[in-house]
Amino acid sequence: MVNNFLRASISVFLYLWRIIIPKEGLGMLFYPVAGGLTSWQIQMGYVAVGLLVCLTLSSIAILGNKKSSRLSSSSIFGAVWISYLALLFPCLQLIQHGDPVWLADRYGFLPWALLGPPLVCIFSRKLLQWSPPLLLAICPLNLLLLGLQSSRLCEHWRNGVQLWSFAVAASAQEPFPAFHHQLGVSLLASGRTDEAAVALQSAWHGRSDALTAKALGRLEAEKGHVKKGLQWLRTALDRPGLSTSQAAATYHDMAVLESRLKRPKLQKILDLYNQSLQLHPDRPLTQEHFGLALAVAGRHDEALVYLQKAERVRSSAELQNGLGAIYSARNQVRKASRHFREALKLRPNWKEAMENLAALSDRKDRKGPVVTEHM
After folding, report:
1. Which of 183, 203, 277, 338 has the fewest CB atoms within 10 Å distance of its CB?
2. CA–CA separation, 188 vs 132, rounded Å?
């Protein structure tokens, strides 16, 4: 908590520093440390706290002085400082103020957004003397210009790849594995698997944690390397650091990869989905997949329970097709037809759903409904 408070205090002044020097060319003085702050950073943090307290108390005293009615330089400074702090405070993340705010701040455009309102405060007394029509003309224009400037600067940081690429480059002197991990995850989400592999391997060599192993598992799955993906996911489960929901997602991903093997073991797939649901019983995606796997195993009553639970939250072509297959096996033709048609609405011209629907009209030639496992 102390380190978080010191970081937040320093960031108050770093935001001002970023107004003067563009962030793209800024060599930051504070680099993240995995174990916390260095002794020098702690000292600078306490200096920032002292300056913050002195400037704030002085501004309050100046603005609270009833004798000072004229628009003096001290009252201008007090109004600007208090306005700046009031607008900046929600962005400081005092309780969980992580290191990335120094080198890869999603809100790096905020100094410019914060610069406008304090400047308006300088002329607050004068503005009150102006006519309402003039105020109505000036205020929207000020907000429009401020919004355009903020949006323009924000565009550079809105993309996760750009954000974490800058963070990795800025911390090159003292590599921070968490930045490489976040960059790898962002690249993976963007479909750039080769670059994601480089970033995630760098993160793994710097800090072999469960989350990076999980991300590497998903990377191998995207590449089609099922066995390597399973190995990484097992490694993730063997290491501490996964939350309950993350562990549930890992078991789910393992079940999906097991189903992609050349000779999948259905019981093992069912066990993995069951382990996922034991950790996170209300996970709709796993309920759907578990229900479909149970249907493939011929356990229609259990499958129906899980598919109906999932249907309350989500719907997919595979889920609707699975429900149709179960009702078809029970000779409930109307219900089966409705679900097969719903599957075709969600995925037009899907061969399996079309075949299942056609089979309902010709029971003699029916080979049986098809249930598809999917990721």
Report:
1. 338
2. 53
Identity of residue 372: T
Asked if residue 328 has pLDDT above 70, the reply is yes
**Residue 293 — very low, low, confident or very high, per pLDDT cuts 50/70/90?**
very high
For residues 116 and 118, give the distance between their C-alpha atoms in angstroms, rounded to a whole number: 6
Q: What pTM does this model have?
A: 0.63
Which sign, positive or negative, has the C-alpha torsion 51, 57, 63, 66?
negative
Long-range (24+ apart) CB contacts under 8 A made by 331-340 are 333/360, 336/360, 336/369
* Cα four-point dihedral sign 320, 325, 330, 334: positive
Cβ-based neighbour number of residue 214 at 10 Å: 24
Q: Reduced to 3 states, what is the DSSP secondary structure of residue 183?
A: helix
- CA 220/CA 229 separation, integer angstroms: 5
User: Could you give the maximum distance between any two Cα atoms of the chain, in Å?
Assistant: 98
H-only helix segments in the chain: 2-20, 39-64, 73-88, 100-103, 110-122, 124-128, 132-158, 160-170, 177-189, 193-206, 210-223, 226-238, 244-259, 266-279, 284-296, 300-311, 317-329, 333-346, 351-360
Kindly report the backbone phi and psi dihedral angles of residue 167, in degrees, each rounded to the nearest multiple of 5, phi listed first: -60, -45
What's the average model confidence in pLDDT over 210-223? 94
From the CA atom positions of the chain, what is the Rg in Å? 29
CA distance 115 to 150: 10
The first and second tokens of residue 315, run together, are 């719907």
Average pLDDT score over the chain: 77
Q: Please tell me the number of Cα atoms within 13 Å of 72 on its side-chain side.
A: 12
Give the model's pLDDT for residue 323.
Answer: 95
